[in-house]
Amino acid sequence: MAKSGKVVQLFQKPENFIKSRARELQLGTCYITEDWDETGIANIMVSRKHTNGNFTLGIYLVDLKCLGIKDTTFKFNVSEDELDYFADFVGVNEIAYNEVHNIIYGAEAFADSCGFKAHKDWAITQFILEEDDDHIPLIDIEFGEGGVPAYYVGLDDNPAKVKQILATLDKNIGPGNYFFANDDEEFEDDDELFSDGLDETHEGNQNLSFKQIYFTLTGAYKNLVREKSAFIFDENLLDEILNEMVVVNSYSVNDDLEEEITKCVDLHESVFEEKSEESITQIQKLLVKNPDNPHLYTELFLQYKGAMLNHKADAIAKKGFELFPDFLYLRFFVAHAAMVDKELEKGFKLLNNQYYLNQAFPQRTAFSEGEFMFFYSALCHYFVEKGDLDNAIVCSDFLIDDIYTYACNENAIFSVMQAVKEEMKAQL
User: Fold this and answer.
1) Domains and CATH numbers, the chain
2) Helix, strand or coil for residue 352?
3) How far apart are CA 131 and CA 23, in angstroms?
4) pLDDT digit string (tens) for 40-53?
């Protein structure tokens, strides 16, 4: 949870680094959930150590029974404290890398033979692992049950998804050539919803992915205590904005500016990540040499906020707004900071007092993915602080798929989950 005055910074566009250089980093400790070999579901974390002492993490939700790599994400250049946090979430059981390698690649190959492809972000996170060649010794690990695919319906598997998975198995394996089980077990005790740790939402099921935990908790809230707010988003309109107006660029829809910012980030990554007086001085010098780079105003704002130099933060933000009115990242970071500081009117004004990104900035015909995510993470905090959980959940539902790609998404979603738990405790 973010504390007043703190702003969680966007990770510096790590995909290219991971694909080209992650395998050059030293392998660190690997972690896996307890009893993975019995349940057939493993949450796994693989760490790589940077020369600056930070870590890049690959996180994988692996179904050894049938579906392979169901979910995967990464955390780029994080501190040792953050590594420990994610290790606690995955499960603090250490495991040798060679065994992890065999589990992940073996499950991916077994699932592929059943007709299931790995999660889309496997295209990135596979490069946090070693290359799958003969230098990694083979370890005998069971996939399926006795080599036969076994599909157990998960908590977030709706009827349409179940039907699709069964159809895939029928096509690739053949009817009757796989195991299938549908467990409709409900919560036996409402107290399970209110455990002190967010990662213990469903007691005894440490193999649940974070998304499953999130949807279980927010789904229970919607079913048990939800009261319709005065305003509810048009989710179809949000889908339309995301699918038709959002492009993949991290920083800007301007390709030249995107290239300039990416180059700056790659060259000065450690300066941006470190929060210190020395970093502030270095960024100030960079800004003097590169006055046309709007990203430096964002970085300096973040550094000032981290150092609790709020007057300087406000001044650099104001100057950045004047020079680069169309650079929305700075605006959204400042709005996010205002929401976290409970200055809701100030933050909402920076979003032009609108709930839809395209209506807030009608002069724009396209937005970067990061602009979309940071607009709605700021708005999510706005609704949480107002006690409007219905609309906060709508926002967080659109943030959840990229929870660990954009740090403000993570911050907003955890805020929603905590508020939901407290509300359910109060009403039940």
Assistant:
1) 1-185 (no CATH), 235-427 (1.25.40)
2) coil
3) 8
4) 999 999 999 998 88
